[in-house]
Amino acid sequence: MSSVATRSGILSGRYALATLGMVAIVGVAAFQNLAMTTVMPEISRDLDGQTLYALAFAAPLAAGVPGMVLAGTWTDRSGGRIVAWVSAAFFAIGTAVVMTAPTMEVFLAGRLVEGFGAGAIDVVLYVLVARIFPAELDGPVFAGFAAAWVVPALVGPALAGLVTEVWGWHWVFAGALVIAVVAFALLVPTLARLHAPPVERRPPWRAGGIGWSVAAALAILLLNVAPDLGPWARVVAVVIGVVGAWAALRPLLPTGTFRAAAGLPSVVLLRGLVAAAFFGSEAYVPFLLQERHGLSASAAGLALTVAALSWAGASWLHGRLGEQRLTASRTFGAGLSLVLVSLLSALAVAVWDLPWWLLVAGWFVGGAGMGAMYPRLSMLTLRFSGEGDDGFASSALTIADASGSVVGLAVTGLLFVGSGGAEGAWSFPLVFVAMTAIALLGSVAVRRLGPVPAPVTSPLVLGAGGPDQR
To answer: What is the spatial distance between Cα 470 and Cα 460, in angstroms, rounded to a whole number?
Structure first.
């Protein structure tokens, strides 16, 4: 069974529709992400919300944390079909609110609803990989997820910039909503294969975890609103936010995550650190190119395009080389090095006003680093998780991803606003210095990873047409 699956691949008759549906969903997320980053400077000017710039990125990621926790426990109990429908509904409603937002406050409310749905659907995708595909196809599936960024990367930033310049940014989100509906329609037939486990094997509701996830979201949102507060209130908000986020995230992540314990905890921690460093910086890359180098929104989006392309290319190469030729430690060491190159190139452009294309080239290198690390982190998460708790492990990984990104955005927002915003001489350099420091912390998690278990190559088929469980 396993060898047949390996020969036929993820686009064989049995797996083709599942692959296409999931890749389409990831493609929607890619377009939304790239378009949002490209046009956000224009949105912040139009809605008079420049002080809330970082919060516009952080809000959906923070709201995604409760969505991920709820989806993780709900999926382990019900199989995931209903979870996917509810998640899609929240995403669609949130996007519609964003599309029609007349003020920054309404815009942020829509981003919160949208983020809750997006976080939940992310967990469903990981569970689909774990329950439908054999272990040896995990790498190709995650490489396919990265490849889903190629078309949005080629046309997304330029198209979003052009639509914004001609018709206005509202129409960018209208297009994203249409694409999302089509993508989810492709996934619907596959959802029928997510059967609920027998009653005796259903885990209890993690009500405490859901409560902690709400607390974590509030804490990290508090960190992101801190830049808008007065000096003393800002200090209080940062202290409460940091302590609250740490306390609330601990029950949601594997035991030992914050001390980089071997196995799944180190994998989850590394995912959070690299997400914080890269995405905390990326929100300011088009901003820097537009404010300091005079590029248009579509031209500034070139940095995002090349990074997405190199991300997809590195993920494809990672899948081709295999685990024997590219060990986990080598993958993470090379990936972190490439991300550091991108951050240092951005820092050099910000400090010495070097040509803008150096930043674009550096971001291309950083995208390759992320593309090498992300598939392996996803594979190891499923590898370290046991049967029946893949929902929890998947939600933990996506929580680390989202929380890391939000914390990175909070740090950069505090530094950026605190040093004078777009007019400050050291605002952009401080952003990239801080994120470089966070990326360097990732080497600790790599050293503490420990032995990696081999893939299980004999999936158990649970009835005709049912999911494959490892």
So the answer is: 6
Phi-psi region of 168 (alpha: psi -120 to 50; beta: other; left: phi over 0): left
Please identify every stretch of the chain with a pLDDT value under 70, giving residue numbers as ranges: 1-8, 12-13, 50-51, 54, 194-207, 298, 322-324, 386-391, 453-470
Give the pLDDT confidence score for residue 67 in this predicted structure: 85
Angle, nearest 10°, between helix axes 302-325 and 285-293?
Answer: 150
Distance between CA atoms of 436 and 130, rounded to whole angstroms?
33
Q: Would you give the DSSP letter of residue 412?
A: H
User: What's the rounded Cα separation, in Å, for the pair 332 and 336?
Assistant: 6
- Three-state secondary structure call for residue 261: coil
State how far the Cα of 365 lies from the Cα of 343, in Å rounded to an integer. 10
pLDDT digits (tens, 9 = 90+) for 100-141: 888 888 998 998 999 898 888 888 887 777 777 777 777 778
Residue 49: how many other CB atoms lie within 10 Å: 18
458 residue type, one letter: S
Distances (CA, A) of 60 to 36, 64, 260: 12, 6, 27
| 460 three-class SS | strand
The two structure tokens encoding residue 310? 């190199």
pLDDT attached to residue 8: 55
Please report, as a single letter, which amino acid is at residue 220: I
Element at 209 (helix H, strand E): helix 207-225
CA 227 to chain centre: 23
User: How many degrees, rounded to 5, is the angle at CA 129 between CA 128 and CA 132?
Assistant: 70
pLDDT at 467: 27
**DSSP annotation string for 162-189:** HHHHHT-THHHHHHHHHHHHHHHHHHHH
> 87 and 122 in contact (C-beta within 8 Å)?
no
Q: Give residue 176's Cα distance to chain centre.
A: 17
Tokens of 20: 């296409």
Tokens of 347: 């820092």
User: Running DSSP on this structure, what letter comes out for residue 405?
Assistant: H
Whole-number Å distance between alpha carbons of 400 and 258? 11
Alpha carbon separation from 113 to 104, 213, 270, 469 (Å, rounded): 14, 15, 27, 32
List C-alpha distances in Å: 33 to 110, 147, 320, 450. Answer: 15, 15, 27, 33
pLDDT at res. 2: 41
Maximal C-alpha separation, the chain: 64
